[in-house]
């Protein structure tokens, strides 16, 4: 059994500046002196070798910084440089992360001259290689009994999923791909994953965002998740529509808590549930000794540019 704080620490596991020297040798990826990603030394070695093959080289690489070369100046040129880079490294099997190629383009932020602050777009699977911040949406679906008791709709991930197969998940969740707004992503994922119509999913209420920084076998992943709540009509049940979800459970919060503490949730989805529990006073400061630490760790300040959605 875990504590709630231990669950948070599993996901938010990149060391804080005063806690460890383990990642003291990481190097920023920058654009116009703004840090847009973060690189491990092993990644820099591979980038340096790739860079040496091309003339002109697409990157400027030093011991303290990696950035685009001076001849790469705009959104299109950066996007094409990243495409060529990762198409090549994928064909050469340089990174395990690229085995999970998604054919999904994620925006990378940091160019204030581009709409929404987008600097370029790149393949989703490659983002942890460059330590690129990613953004997604997670929705907590729930119902209230006539007595006011909350029950939550919990998804079980399909056993065929390449990541976290069979683990428990939030009702609806997905990354925000390039060209989609936050609300459009909610509506799209609701239909694809749970067969929930737009007239219902569009009533979901934005409640908060959580942030954390995860280290995985694929690299470094700072993440932000926009959190929505949706009180389901009592006659509406989410149903799997694609191959992402095996089934949905309707559980009272004690059952959800039991599965949280047993480690049955996908780690970042566990954080979304913990956030829901805090906001609905299921986790309270009088009964949770790590209350402040939990709040701090699921709202970590990430030193990267954010989207400008308006």
UniProtKB/TrEMBL annotation:
<feature type="domain" description="Nudix hydrolase">
    <location>
        <begin position="130"/>
        <end position="275"/>
    </location>
</feature>
<dbReference type="Pfam" id="PF15916">
    <property type="entry name" value="DUF4743"/>
</dbReference>
<dbReference type="InterPro" id="IPR000086">
    <property type="entry name" value="NUDIX_hydrolase_dom"/>
</dbReference>
<protein>
    <submittedName>
        <fullName>10487_t:CDS:1</fullName>
    </submittedName>
</protein>
<dbReference type="InterPro" id="IPR015797">
    <property type="entry name" value="NUDIX_hydrolase-like_dom_sf"/>
</dbReference>
<dbReference type="GO" id="GO:0044715">
    <property type="term" value="F:8-oxo-dGDP phosphatase activity"/>
</dbReference>
<dbReference type="InterPro" id="IPR031804">
    <property type="entry name" value="DUF4743"/>
</dbReference>
């Amino acid at each position: 059994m875990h504590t709630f704080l231990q669950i948070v620490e599993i996901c938010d596991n990149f060391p804080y500046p005063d806690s460890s020297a383990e990642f003291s040798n990481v190097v920023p990826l920058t654009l116009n002196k703004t840090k847009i990603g973060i690189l491990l030394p092993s990644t820099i070695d591979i980038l340096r070798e790739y860079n040496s093959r091309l003339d002109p080289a697409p990157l400027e690489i030093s011991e303290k910084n990696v950035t685009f070369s001076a001849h790469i100046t705009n959104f299109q040129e950066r996007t094409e440089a990243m495409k060529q880079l990762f198409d090549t490294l994928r064909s050469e099997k340089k990174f395990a992360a690229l085995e999970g190629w998604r054919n999904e383009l994620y925006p990378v932020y940091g160019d204030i001259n581009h709409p929404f602050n987008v600097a370029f777009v790149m393949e989703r699977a490659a983002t942890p290689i460059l330590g690129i911040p990613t953004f997604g949406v997670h929705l907590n679906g729930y119902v209230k009994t006539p007595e006011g008791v909350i029950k939550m709709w919990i998804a079980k991930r399909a056993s065929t999923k390449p990541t976290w197969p069979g683990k428990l998940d939030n009702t609806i969740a997905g990354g925000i791909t390039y060209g989609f707004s936050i609300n459009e992503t909610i509506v799209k994922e609701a239909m694809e994953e749970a067969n929930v119509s737009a007239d219902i999913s569009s009533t979901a209420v934005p409640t908060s965002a959580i942030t954390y920084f995860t280290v995985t076998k694929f690299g470094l992943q700072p993440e932000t998740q926009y959190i929505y709540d949706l009180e389901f009509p009592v006659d509406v049940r989410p149903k799997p529509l694609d191959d992402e979800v095996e089934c949905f459970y309707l559980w009272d919060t004690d059952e959800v808590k039991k599965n949280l503490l047993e480690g049955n949730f996908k780690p970042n989805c566990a954080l979304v549930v913990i956030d829901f529990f805090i906001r609905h006073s299921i986790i309270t400061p009088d009964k949770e000794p790590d209350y402040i630490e939990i709040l701090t760790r699921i709202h970590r300040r990430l030193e990267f540019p954010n989207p400008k959605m308006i």
